[in-house]
Design goal:
The chain is mainly alpha-helical. Helices cover 63% and strands 0% of the residues. It is built from five helices and no strands. Helix 1 runs parallel beside helix 3 and helix 2 crosses helix 4. The chain is globular, with a radius of gyration of 12 Å. The relative contact order is 0.18.
Length: 106
């Protein structure tokens, strides 16, 4: 969930958003960072957001993030999927599997 790769560079703003996603003190705070920055996020941020939701869920023994959190992160991934590099794709699939989420669910 990092690096710039062939999908384009990562700006200072995108690095700042990623840092806020990773450093959010709670899942609720993570969702708030996503909500506040969704229009400015790039593919790396989208992948990181979903990965962080799943990672926190796994660390908290299956504590499931809010449906809103999963929906916002999934929508961001769908928006930016054309820019995903293999690492972003694998992080996203791992996150959905860890959350036991079917991205086809409405």
């Amino acid at each position: 969930h990092g690096g710039s790769g062939a999908g384009g560079g990562v700006s200072a703003e995108h690095k700042w958003i990623n840092r806020r996603l990773v450093d959010a003190p709670s899942t609720a705070a993570l969702v708030e960072v996503m909500r506040e920055n969704r229009e400015r996020m790039n593919h790396v941020n989208a992948s990181t957001a979903l990965h962080q939701l799943a990672k926190r869920s796994k660390q908290r023994r299956g504590e499931r993030p809010s449906r809103e959190g999963i929906d916002v992160a999934s929508a961001l991934c769908e928006t930016h999927i054309s820019a995903f590099q293999p690492q972003h794709l694998s992080n996203t699939v791992w996150a959905w599997a860890t959350l036991r989420h079917d991205p086809g669910e409405a």
